[in-house]
Specification:
Blueprint: E1 5-11, H1 19-32, E2 37-43, H2 55-58, E3 62-63, E4 69-70, H3 73-81, E5 90-92, H4 93-106, H5 116-133, E6 139-144, H6 154-167, E7 172-179, E8 182-183, E9 188-189, H7 192-203, E10 210-215, H8 221-231, E11 238-242, H9 250-257, H10 259-266, H11 278-288, E12 292-300, H12 310-322, E13 325-333, H13 342-346, E14 351-354, H14 363-375, E15 380-383, H15 385-397, E16 405-406, E17 416-420, E18 435-443, H16 448-453, E19 457-464, E20 466-468, H17 473-479, E21 482-486, E22 493-497, E23 504-507, H18 522-536
Helix pairs in contact: 1-3, 1-9, 4-5, 5-6, 11-12, 12-18, 14-15
Length: 538
Protein backbone atom coordinates (compact mmCIF):
# COMPACT_ATOMS: atom_id res chain seq x y z
CA UNK A 1 0.00 0.00 0.00
CA UNK A 2 1.23 3.50 -0.82
CA UNK A 3 2.57 5.71 1.94
CA UNK A 4 0.28 8.61 1.11
CA UNK A 5 1.58 12.12 1.73
CA UNK A 6 -0.69 15.02 2.69
CA UNK A 7 -0.49 18.69 1.68
CA UNK A 8 -2.81 21.16 3.44
CA UNK A 9 -3.60 24.50 1.80
CA UNK A 10 -4.83 27.29 4.07
CA UNK A 11 -5.67 30.90 3.30
CA UNK A 12 -5.10 34.17 5.09
CA UNK A 13 -5.78 37.93 4.97
CA UNK A 14 -8.81 37.69 2.69
CA UNK A 15 -11.01 35.20 0.90
CA UNK A 16 -11.07 34.59 -2.87
CA UNK A 17 -7.28 34.51 -3.22
CA UNK A 18 -7.49 31.34 -5.27
CA UNK A 19 -6.60 28.46 -2.94
CA UNK A 20 -8.39 26.09 -5.29
CA UNK A 21 -6.37 27.21 -8.30
CA UNK A 22 -3.08 26.98 -6.39
CA UNK A 23 -4.04 23.50 -5.12
CA UNK A 24 -5.06 22.40 -8.63
CA UNK A 25 -1.89 23.87 -10.19
CA UNK A 26 0.36 22.14 -7.67
CA UNK A 27 -1.52 18.88 -8.24
CA UNK A 28 -1.06 19.26 -12.01
CA UNK A 29 2.71 19.70 -11.63
CA UNK A 30 3.00 16.71 -9.29
CA UNK A 31 0.88 14.66 -11.69
CA UNK A 32 3.20 15.67 -14.55
CA UNK A 33 6.11 14.43 -12.44
CA UNK A 34 4.55 10.97 -12.32
CA UNK A 35 2.72 11.05 -8.99
CA UNK A 36 -0.93 10.06 -8.51
CA UNK A 37 -2.65 13.03 -6.89
CA UNK A 38 -6.13 14.02 -5.77
CA UNK A 39 -7.52 17.16 -4.15
CA UNK A 40 -10.27 17.55 -1.58
CA UNK A 41 -12.08 20.61 -0.24
CA UNK A 42 -13.08 21.15 3.38
CA UNK A 43 -15.93 23.66 3.52
CA UNK A 44 -16.68 25.29 6.89
CA UNK A 45 -20.38 25.98 6.33
CA UNK A 46 -23.07 24.01 8.17
CA UNK A 47 -25.06 23.02 5.08
CA UNK A 48 -24.64 19.30 4.42
CA UNK A 49 -23.73 20.22 0.84
CA UNK A 50 -24.32 23.21 -1.49
CA UNK A 51 -27.28 21.46 -3.15
CA UNK A 52 -29.88 23.65 -1.43
CA UNK A 53 -27.88 26.87 -1.68
CA UNK A 54 -28.98 29.64 -4.03
CA UNK A 55 -26.34 30.11 -6.77
CA UNK A 56 -26.11 33.77 -5.72
CA UNK A 57 -24.89 32.50 -2.33
CA UNK A 58 -22.23 30.07 -3.42
CA UNK A 59 -21.91 30.01 -7.17
CA UNK A 60 -22.35 26.82 -9.15
CA UNK A 61 -23.19 23.53 -7.47
CA UNK A 62 -20.86 21.00 -9.08
CA UNK A 63 -21.92 17.35 -9.41
CA UNK A 64 -19.62 14.30 -9.45
CA UNK A 65 -20.11 10.92 -11.15
CA UNK A 66 -21.21 9.34 -7.87
CA UNK A 67 -23.85 12.00 -7.25
CA UNK A 68 -22.16 14.34 -4.79
CA UNK A 69 -23.36 17.95 -4.89
CA UNK A 70 -20.18 19.86 -4.18
CA UNK A 71 -18.31 23.15 -4.12
CA UNK A 72 -17.37 24.59 -7.52
CA UNK A 73 -13.66 24.16 -6.69
CA UNK A 74 -14.05 20.45 -7.45
CA UNK A 75 -14.77 21.48 -11.02
CA UNK A 76 -11.36 23.18 -11.14
CA UNK A 77 -9.74 20.05 -9.70
CA UNK A 78 -11.24 17.88 -12.45
CA UNK A 79 -10.54 20.38 -15.24
CA UNK A 80 -6.85 20.59 -14.24
CA UNK A 81 -6.18 16.94 -13.38
CA UNK A 82 -8.48 15.29 -15.93
CA UNK A 83 -9.57 12.69 -13.35
CA UNK A 84 -12.98 12.44 -11.64
CA UNK A 85 -13.65 13.43 -8.04
CA UNK A 86 -16.16 11.79 -5.69
CA UNK A 87 -18.21 12.16 -2.50
CA UNK A 88 -14.97 11.94 -0.49
CA UNK A 89 -13.44 14.99 -2.20
CA UNK A 90 -15.81 17.50 -0.55
CA UNK A 91 -16.43 17.63 3.19
CA UNK A 92 -18.60 20.21 4.99
CA UNK A 93 -18.97 21.08 8.65
CA UNK A 94 -22.62 20.09 8.29
CA UNK A 95 -21.67 16.60 7.16
CA UNK A 96 -19.10 16.27 9.96
CA UNK A 97 -21.58 17.23 12.68
CA UNK A 98 -24.34 15.13 11.11
CA UNK A 99 -22.10 12.06 11.23
CA UNK A 100 -21.00 12.67 14.83
CA UNK A 101 -24.56 13.31 16.02
CA UNK A 102 -25.82 10.15 14.30
CA UNK A 103 -23.08 8.16 16.09
CA UNK A 104 -24.05 9.77 19.39
CA UNK A 105 -27.71 8.83 18.88
CA UNK A 106 -26.69 5.21 18.23
CA UNK A 107 -24.64 5.16 21.44
CA UNK A 108 -21.30 4.75 19.70
CA UNK A 109 -19.51 6.97 22.22
CA UNK A 110 -20.43 4.76 25.19
CA UNK A 111 -22.03 7.57 27.16
CA UNK A 112 -19.10 9.98 26.94
CA UNK A 113 -19.63 13.74 26.60
CA UNK A 114 -19.36 14.52 22.89
CA UNK A 115 -17.01 17.46 22.29
CA UNK A 116 -15.29 19.34 19.47
CA UNK A 117 -12.02 17.75 20.62
CA UNK A 118 -11.67 14.84 20.19
CA UNK A 119 -14.94 13.80 18.51
CA UNK A 120 -15.37 16.47 15.82
CA UNK A 121 -11.65 16.64 15.07
CA UNK A 122 -11.43 12.82 14.92
CA UNK A 123 -14.24 12.80 12.34
CA UNK A 124 -12.47 15.50 10.30
CA UNK A 125 -9.20 13.55 10.40
CA UNK A 126 -11.03 10.41 9.32
CA UNK A 127 -12.60 12.24 6.34
CA UNK A 128 -9.25 13.76 5.34
CA UNK A 129 -7.61 10.33 5.24
CA UNK A 130 -10.36 8.39 3.43
CA UNK A 131 -8.82 9.13 0.01
CA UNK A 132 -5.31 8.35 1.23
CA UNK A 133 -6.41 5.05 2.73
CA UNK A 134 -7.67 3.79 -0.63
CA UNK A 135 -4.10 3.24 -1.73
CA UNK A 136 -4.83 4.98 -5.03
CA UNK A 137 -2.91 8.18 -4.39
CA UNK A 138 0.67 9.14 -3.61
CA UNK A 139 -0.38 12.64 -2.52
CA UNK A 140 -3.65 14.07 -1.20
CA UNK A 141 -3.94 17.85 -1.31
CA UNK A 142 -6.54 19.24 1.10
CA UNK A 143 -7.83 22.77 0.62
CA UNK A 144 -9.35 24.29 3.76
CA UNK A 145 -12.11 26.75 2.89
CA UNK A 146 -12.41 30.18 4.48
CA UNK A 147 -9.67 32.25 6.05
CA UNK A 148 -7.42 31.53 9.03
CA UNK A 149 -8.98 33.23 12.05
CA UNK A 150 -12.56 32.45 11.06
CA UNK A 151 -14.42 30.76 13.92
CA UNK A 152 -15.82 28.25 11.45
CA UNK A 153 -12.35 27.07 10.37
CA UNK A 154 -10.90 26.45 13.83
CA UNK A 155 -11.80 22.73 14.09
CA UNK A 156 -10.20 22.12 10.69
CA UNK A 157 -6.98 23.91 11.62
CA UNK A 158 -6.86 21.96 14.90
CA UNK A 159 -7.34 18.71 12.95
CA UNK A 160 -4.44 19.68 10.68
CA UNK A 161 -2.28 20.39 13.74
CA UNK A 162 -3.01 16.92 15.09
CA UNK A 163 -2.40 15.21 11.75
CA UNK A 164 0.95 16.98 11.24
CA UNK A 165 2.08 15.47 14.55
CA UNK A 166 0.52 12.04 13.97
CA UNK A 167 1.73 11.57 10.39
CA UNK A 168 5.25 12.89 10.88
CA UNK A 169 7.14 15.72 9.22
CA UNK A 170 8.03 13.78 6.05
CA UNK A 171 4.39 12.85 5.42
CA UNK A 172 2.45 16.09 5.85
CA UNK A 173 2.97 19.80 5.28
CA UNK A 174 1.15 23.15 5.10
CA UNK A 175 1.05 25.71 2.30
CA UNK A 176 -0.35 29.07 3.39
CA UNK A 177 -1.78 31.31 0.68
CA UNK A 178 -1.76 34.96 1.59
CA UNK A 179 -1.97 38.47 0.14
CA UNK A 180 0.87 40.95 -0.25
CA UNK A 181 -1.02 44.15 -1.14
CA UNK A 182 0.41 47.08 -3.05
CA UNK A 183 -0.24 50.52 -1.56
CA UNK A 184 -0.20 53.03 -4.39
CA UNK A 185 0.18 55.99 -2.01
CA UNK A 186 3.33 54.49 -0.52
CA UNK A 187 4.43 52.96 -3.82
CA UNK A 188 5.35 49.65 -2.21
CA UNK A 189 4.22 46.15 -1.34
CA UNK A 190 3.25 45.57 2.29
CA UNK A 191 4.14 42.37 4.17
CA UNK A 192 2.38 43.13 7.46
CA UNK A 193 -0.98 41.46 6.54
CA UNK A 194 0.90 38.26 5.74
CA UNK A 195 2.87 38.45 8.97
CA UNK A 196 -0.33 38.80 10.98
CA UNK A 197 -1.97 35.97 9.07
CA UNK A 198 0.93 33.60 9.73
CA UNK A 199 1.02 34.66 13.38
CA UNK A 200 -2.68 33.78 13.69
CA UNK A 201 -2.04 30.39 12.10
CA UNK A 202 0.87 29.73 14.44
CA UNK A 203 -1.29 30.63 17.43
CA UNK A 204 -3.37 27.61 16.45
CA UNK A 205 -0.26 25.45 16.62
CA UNK A 206 0.33 25.23 12.86
CA UNK A 207 3.44 26.63 11.17
CA UNK A 208 3.37 26.92 7.37
CA UNK A 209 6.16 25.23 5.45
CA UNK A 210 5.56 27.24 2.27
CA UNK A 211 4.13 30.72 1.75
CA UNK A 212 2.39 31.44 -1.55
CA UNK A 213 1.97 35.19 -1.87
CA UNK A 214 -0.71 36.64 -4.15
CA UNK A 215 0.42 39.95 -5.56
CA UNK A 216 -0.16 42.46 -8.34
CA UNK A 217 3.55 43.30 -8.59
CA UNK A 218 6.80 41.33 -8.61
CA UNK A 219 8.03 40.45 -5.11
CA UNK A 220 11.69 41.37 -4.69
CA UNK A 221 14.32 39.20 -3.02
CA UNK A 222 14.38 41.72 -0.16
CA UNK A 223 10.67 41.24 0.51
CA UNK A 224 11.03 37.45 0.23
CA UNK A 225 13.86 37.58 2.77
CA UNK A 226 11.72 39.72 5.09
CA UNK A 227 8.75 37.35 4.83
CA UNK A 228 11.00 34.35 5.42
CA UNK A 229 12.49 35.94 8.53
CA UNK A 230 9.23 37.08 10.12
CA UNK A 231 7.12 34.09 9.08
CA UNK A 232 9.64 31.41 10.01
CA UNK A 233 9.95 29.81 6.56
CA UNK A 234 12.94 29.32 4.27
CA UNK A 235 13.46 32.06 1.66
CA UNK A 236 13.21 29.56 -1.22
CA UNK A 237 9.82 28.55 0.18
CA UNK A 238 8.37 32.04 -0.26
CA UNK A 239 6.56 31.63 -3.57
CA UNK A 240 5.26 34.51 -5.64
CA UNK A 241 1.80 34.12 -7.24
CA UNK A 242 1.41 37.17 -9.43
CA UNK A 243 -1.93 37.99 -11.09
CA UNK A 244 -2.26 35.92 -14.28
CA UNK A 245 -3.99 36.50 -17.59
CA UNK A 246 -5.90 33.24 -17.11
CA UNK A 247 -6.13 30.63 -14.35
CA UNK A 248 -4.62 28.17 -16.82
CA UNK A 249 -1.33 30.11 -16.68
CA UNK A 250 -0.90 29.34 -13.00
CA UNK A 251 0.69 25.86 -13.34
CA UNK A 252 3.44 27.38 -15.50
CA UNK A 253 3.92 30.26 -13.04
CA UNK A 254 4.17 27.82 -10.12
CA UNK A 255 6.63 25.70 -12.12
CA UNK A 256 8.84 28.77 -12.64
CA UNK A 257 8.65 29.55 -8.92
CA UNK A 258 9.56 25.97 -7.94
CA UNK A 259 6.46 25.24 -5.86
CA UNK A 260 6.44 21.56 -6.82
CA UNK A 261 10.16 21.17 -6.01
CA UNK A 262 9.66 22.76 -2.58
CA UNK A 263 6.80 20.34 -1.86
CA UNK A 264 8.78 17.28 -3.01
CA UNK A 265 11.73 18.32 -0.86
CA UNK A 266 9.59 18.76 2.25
CA UNK A 267 7.82 15.42 1.73
CA UNK A 268 11.11 13.64 0.95
CA UNK A 269 9.89 12.55 -2.49
CA UNK A 270 12.05 11.92 -5.56
CA UNK A 271 12.09 14.25 -8.57
CA UNK A 272 10.78 11.54 -10.92
CA UNK A 273 10.75 13.63 -14.09
CA UNK A 274 10.55 17.23 -15.22
CA UNK A 275 7.00 18.51 -15.90
CA UNK A 276 6.68 19.22 -19.63
CA UNK A 277 3.02 20.36 -19.74
CA UNK A 278 3.13 19.75 -23.50
CA UNK A 279 -0.61 19.24 -24.11
CA UNK A 280 -1.43 21.90 -21.52
CA UNK A 281 0.73 24.49 -23.26
CA UNK A 282 -0.69 23.55 -26.66
CA UNK A 283 -4.12 24.35 -25.22
CA UNK A 284 -2.79 27.69 -23.92
CA UNK A 285 -1.25 28.54 -27.30
CA UNK A 286 -4.56 27.89 -29.04
CA UNK A 287 -6.48 29.80 -26.38
CA UNK A 288 -4.25 32.88 -26.61
CA UNK A 289 -3.94 32.90 -30.40
CA UNK A 290 -7.46 32.47 -31.79
CA UNK A 291 -8.11 32.84 -35.50
CA UNK A 292 -11.72 33.89 -35.08
CA UNK A 293 -14.10 35.38 -32.52
CA UNK A 294 -17.70 34.25 -32.06
CA UNK A 295 -20.56 35.74 -30.05
CA UNK A 296 -22.55 33.33 -27.88
CA UNK A 297 -25.47 34.36 -25.69
CA UNK A 298 -25.75 32.60 -22.33
CA UNK A 299 -29.37 33.09 -21.26
CA UNK A 300 -29.80 32.47 -17.55
CA UNK A 301 -31.38 33.58 -14.29
CA UNK A 302 -28.20 34.16 -12.26
CA UNK A 303 -26.01 35.93 -14.81
CA UNK A 304 -25.05 38.73 -12.39
CA UNK A 305 -22.80 36.12 -10.73
CA UNK A 306 -20.77 34.44 -13.46
CA UNK A 307 -19.62 31.75 -11.01
CA UNK A 308 -23.19 30.41 -11.09
CA UNK A 309 -22.32 29.03 -14.54
CA UNK A 310 -18.61 28.40 -13.96
CA UNK A 311 -18.40 24.99 -15.63
CA UNK A 312 -20.24 26.29 -18.71
CA UNK A 313 -17.95 29.28 -19.15
CA UNK A 314 -14.88 27.06 -18.68
CA UNK A 315 -16.26 24.49 -21.15
CA UNK A 316 -16.48 27.30 -23.71
CA UNK A 317 -12.81 28.13 -23.06
CA UNK A 318 -11.83 24.49 -23.68
CA UNK A 319 -14.02 24.18 -26.79
CA UNK A 320 -12.90 27.56 -28.10
CA UNK A 321 -9.23 26.60 -27.83
CA UNK A 322 -9.94 23.32 -29.62
CA UNK A 323 -11.48 25.28 -32.51
CA UNK A 324 -8.89 28.10 -32.29
CA UNK A 325 -11.79 30.43 -31.61
CA UNK A 326 -12.26 33.12 -28.97
CA UNK A 327 -15.72 32.68 -27.44
CA UNK A 328 -17.19 36.00 -26.36
CA UNK A 329 -20.00 35.20 -23.91
CA UNK A 330 -22.91 37.66 -23.70
CA UNK A 331 -24.48 37.23 -20.26
CA UNK A 332 -28.21 37.72 -20.86
CA UNK A 333 -30.68 37.85 -17.99
CA UNK A 334 -33.76 35.86 -18.98
CA UNK A 335 -36.03 38.11 -16.86
CA UNK A 336 -35.16 41.01 -19.16
CA UNK A 337 -36.13 39.22 -22.39
CA UNK A 338 -39.56 39.96 -23.86
CA UNK A 339 -41.32 39.33 -27.17
CA UNK A 340 -40.54 42.90 -28.20
CA UNK A 341 -36.84 43.14 -27.29
CA UNK A 342 -35.61 39.63 -28.15
CA UNK A 343 -34.71 40.49 -31.80
CA UNK A 344 -32.69 43.51 -30.68
CA UNK A 345 -30.88 41.68 -27.85
CA UNK A 346 -30.12 38.45 -29.70
CA UNK A 347 -29.71 39.41 -33.36
CA UNK A 348 -25.89 39.69 -33.36
CA UNK A 349 -25.33 36.30 -31.72
CA UNK A 350 -23.77 33.31 -33.47
CA UNK A 351 -25.16 30.87 -30.92
CA UNK A 352 -27.56 30.73 -27.99
CA UNK A 353 -27.22 28.59 -24.87
CA UNK A 354 -30.16 28.46 -22.47
CA UNK A 355 -28.71 27.59 -19.09
CA UNK A 356 -29.82 25.35 -16.20
CA UNK A 357 -31.81 26.66 -13.25
CA UNK A 358 -34.79 26.12 -10.96
CA UNK A 359 -38.14 27.85 -10.40
CA UNK A 360 -40.43 29.98 -12.52
CA UNK A 361 -38.57 33.32 -12.43
CA UNK A 362 -37.31 34.28 -15.89
CA UNK A 363 -38.88 31.28 -17.61
CA UNK A 364 -40.82 33.18 -20.29
CA UNK A 365 -37.64 34.98 -21.34
CA UNK A 366 -35.88 31.65 -21.80
CA UNK A 367 -38.75 30.40 -23.94
CA UNK A 368 -38.55 33.51 -26.13
CA UNK A 369 -34.80 32.96 -26.57
CA UNK A 370 -35.42 29.37 -27.68
CA UNK A 371 -38.07 30.52 -30.15
CA UNK A 372 -35.73 33.11 -31.65
CA UNK A 373 -32.95 30.53 -32.06
CA UNK A 374 -35.30 27.97 -33.61
CA UNK A 375 -37.00 30.32 -36.05
CA UNK A 376 -33.83 32.13 -37.11
CA UNK A 377 -31.70 28.99 -37.53
CA UNK A 378 -29.18 30.11 -34.90
CA UNK A 379 -27.19 27.25 -33.30
CA UNK A 380 -28.88 26.36 -30.01
CA UNK A 381 -27.85 24.33 -26.97
CA UNK A 382 -30.25 23.83 -24.06
CA UNK A 383 -28.92 22.33 -20.83
CA UNK A 384 -31.23 20.72 -18.23
CA UNK A 385 -33.89 23.42 -17.68
CA UNK A 386 -32.76 24.86 -21.04
CA UNK A 387 -33.73 21.60 -22.74
CA UNK A 388 -37.09 21.67 -20.95
CA UNK A 389 -37.70 25.23 -22.15
CA UNK A 390 -36.99 24.06 -25.72
CA UNK A 391 -39.65 21.38 -25.29
CA UNK A 392 -42.21 23.86 -23.92
CA UNK A 393 -41.49 26.37 -26.69
CA UNK A 394 -41.94 23.70 -29.36
CA UNK A 395 -45.17 22.50 -27.76
CA UNK A 396 -46.63 26.00 -27.66
CA UNK A 397 -45.52 27.32 -31.03
CA UNK A 398 -45.34 24.23 -33.24
CA UNK A 399 -47.78 21.76 -31.68
CA UNK A 400 -50.22 24.56 -30.86
CA UNK A 401 -50.51 23.65 -27.16
CA UNK A 402 -50.63 27.28 -25.99
CA UNK A 403 -50.81 26.39 -22.28
CA UNK A 404 -48.00 23.80 -22.43
CA UNK A 405 -45.75 24.06 -19.41
CA UNK A 406 -43.75 22.23 -16.77
CA UNK A 407 -45.50 21.22 -13.56
CA UNK A 408 -42.54 22.86 -11.82
CA UNK A 409 -43.87 26.21 -13.06
CA UNK A 410 -47.61 25.47 -13.22
CA UNK A 411 -48.81 22.45 -11.29
CA UNK A 412 -52.28 22.79 -12.89
CA UNK A 413 -51.23 23.04 -16.55
CA UNK A 414 -53.48 20.99 -18.82
CA UNK A 415 -50.48 20.10 -21.02
CA UNK A 416 -47.60 19.08 -18.74
CA UNK A 417 -45.04 18.35 -21.45
CA UNK A 418 -42.46 18.46 -18.64
CA UNK A 419 -43.53 16.64 -15.49
CA UNK A 420 -42.06 15.63 -12.16
CA UNK A 421 -40.31 12.28 -12.16
CA UNK A 422 -42.44 9.51 -10.68
CA UNK A 423 -39.96 8.69 -7.90
CA UNK A 424 -39.80 12.39 -6.92
CA UNK A 425 -43.53 12.81 -6.22
CA UNK A 426 -43.48 11.85 -2.54
CA UNK A 427 -40.18 13.48 -1.60
CA UNK A 428 -40.36 16.09 1.18
CA UNK A 429 -36.66 16.66 1.92
CA UNK A 430 -35.03 18.58 -0.92
CA UNK A 431 -31.34 18.19 -0.08
CA UNK A 432 -29.55 15.44 -1.99
CA UNK A 433 -32.74 13.88 -3.35
CA UNK A 434 -32.70 14.90 -7.02
CA UNK A 435 -31.64 12.60 -9.83
CA UNK A 436 -27.91 13.04 -9.32
CA UNK A 437 -24.66 11.76 -10.76
CA UNK A 438 -23.75 9.77 -13.85
CA UNK A 439 -26.50 7.94 -15.79
CA UNK A 440 -26.30 5.99 -19.01
CA UNK A 441 -27.82 7.27 -22.24
CA UNK A 442 -28.26 5.51 -25.58
CA UNK A 443 -28.09 7.74 -28.65
CA UNK A 444 -30.12 7.17 -31.79
CA UNK A 445 -28.11 5.91 -34.74
CA UNK A 446 -27.31 8.55 -37.37
CA UNK A 447 -28.55 11.35 -35.09
CA UNK A 448 -26.52 14.57 -34.91
CA UNK A 449 -25.68 13.90 -31.27
CA UNK A 450 -24.41 10.35 -32.02
CA UNK A 451 -22.14 11.76 -34.74
CA UNK A 452 -20.84 14.36 -32.29
CA UNK A 453 -20.03 11.78 -29.59
CA UNK A 454 -18.86 9.20 -32.17
CA UNK A 455 -20.57 6.50 -30.10
CA UNK A 456 -24.08 5.29 -29.29
CA UNK A 457 -23.57 4.76 -25.55
CA UNK A 458 -22.62 7.63 -23.25
CA UNK A 459 -22.69 8.46 -19.55
CA UNK A 460 -23.42 11.99 -18.34
CA UNK A 461 -24.09 13.71 -15.02
CA UNK A 462 -27.55 14.82 -13.96
CA UNK A 463 -29.18 17.16 -11.46
CA UNK A 464 -32.95 17.47 -11.89
CA UNK A 465 -36.41 16.45 -10.63
CA UNK A 466 -38.51 17.01 -13.76
CA UNK A 467 -38.46 15.18 -17.10
CA UNK A 468 -39.90 15.04 -20.58
CA UNK A 469 -43.45 13.63 -20.45
CA UNK A 470 -43.31 10.61 -22.77
CA UNK A 471 -47.07 10.65 -23.36
CA UNK A 472 -46.41 13.57 -25.73
CA UNK A 473 -43.44 11.98 -27.51
CA UNK A 474 -45.25 10.88 -30.69
CA UNK A 475 -46.71 14.36 -31.19
CA UNK A 476 -43.26 15.93 -30.90
CA UNK A 477 -41.56 13.47 -33.22
CA UNK A 478 -44.30 13.71 -35.83
CA UNK A 479 -43.81 17.49 -35.85
CA UNK A 480 -40.02 17.52 -36.14
CA UNK A 481 -38.49 17.44 -32.62
CA UNK A 482 -36.89 14.03 -32.15
CA UNK A 483 -35.80 12.28 -28.96
CA UNK A 484 -32.32 11.14 -29.98
CA UNK A 485 -31.05 10.10 -26.54
CA UNK A 486 -32.81 7.98 -23.92
CA UNK A 487 -31.92 6.25 -20.69
CA UNK A 488 -31.86 2.54 -21.63
CA UNK A 489 -33.47 1.42 -18.34
CA UNK A 490 -36.07 4.12 -17.60
CA UNK A 491 -36.73 5.34 -21.16
CA UNK A 492 -36.24 8.90 -19.85
CA UNK A 493 -35.66 11.33 -22.71
CA UNK A 494 -32.13 12.68 -22.35
CA UNK A 495 -31.60 14.43 -25.70
CA UNK A 496 -33.89 16.22 -28.15
CA UNK A 497 -32.91 17.71 -31.47
CA UNK A 498 -34.53 19.26 -34.52
CA UNK A 499 -32.99 17.65 -37.63
CA UNK A 500 -34.34 20.35 -39.94
CA UNK A 501 -32.42 23.01 -37.97
CA UNK A 502 -28.67 23.58 -38.64
CA UNK A 503 -27.79 22.87 -34.99
CA UNK A 504 -30.52 22.55 -32.33
CA UNK A 505 -29.88 20.22 -29.38
CA UNK A 506 -31.31 20.09 -25.87
CA UNK A 507 -29.87 17.78 -23.20
CA UNK A 508 -31.38 16.87 -19.83
CA UNK A 509 -27.91 16.27 -18.38
CA UNK A 510 -24.98 18.62 -17.69
CA UNK A 511 -22.20 18.10 -20.26
CA UNK A 512 -20.26 21.04 -18.85
CA UNK A 513 -19.31 19.04 -15.73
CA UNK A 514 -17.16 16.66 -17.78
CA UNK A 515 -15.25 19.16 -19.91
CA UNK A 516 -11.56 19.41 -19.06
CA UNK A 517 -8.52 21.19 -20.50
CA UNK A 518 -7.17 18.00 -22.08
CA UNK A 519 -10.61 16.56 -22.99
CA UNK A 520 -12.97 19.35 -24.09
CA UNK A 521 -16.54 18.08 -24.15
CA UNK A 522 -17.52 17.04 -27.71
CA UNK A 523 -20.94 18.70 -27.43
CA UNK A 524 -19.36 22.07 -26.64
CA UNK A 525 -16.65 21.60 -29.25
CA UNK A 526 -19.23 20.89 -31.96
CA UNK A 527 -21.55 23.68 -30.77
CA UNK A 528 -18.69 26.20 -30.98
CA UNK A 529 -17.81 24.86 -34.44
CA UNK A 530 -21.44 25.38 -35.53
CA UNK A 531 -21.40 28.92 -34.10
CA UNK A 532 -18.19 29.63 -36.02
CA UNK A 533 -19.82 28.45 -39.26
CA UNK A 534 -22.80 30.71 -38.50
CA UNK A 535 -20.47 33.69 -37.94
CA UNK A 536 -18.63 33.09 -41.21
CA UNK A 537 -21.92 32.96 -43.09
CA UNK A 538 -23.49 35.84 -41.16
Amino acid sequence: MKNTKYVFVTGGVTSSLGKGIIAASLAKLLQERGYSVTIQKLDPYINIDPGTLNPYEHGECYVTDDGAETDLDLGHYERFLNIPTSQSNNVTTGRIYQSVIEKERKGDFLGKTVQVIPHITDEIKHRIQILGNTGDFDIVITEIGGTVGDIESLPYVESVRQLLWELGEDNAMVIHLTLVPYLAAAGELKTKPTQHSVKMLMQSGVSPNILVCRTEHEISDTIKQKLALFCNVRKENVIQSIDAETIYDVPNLMLEEGLDIAVLKKLNLAHKKQPKLKSWNQFLTNFKNPKYTIEIGLVGKYVELHDAYKSISEAFIHAGAKNKVSVNIHWIHSEELTVKNVPRKLKKLNGILVAPGFGERGIEGKIEAVKYARENKIPFLGICLGMQMAVIEFARNVLGLKDANSTEMDVNTSNPVIDIMEEQKNITNYGGTMRLGAWDCKLAENSKVAKIYKTKNISERHRHRFEFNNSYLNDFENSGMIATGKNPKTNLVEVVEIPSHPWFIGVQYHPEYKSTVLNPHPLFVNFVKACLEHSLNY
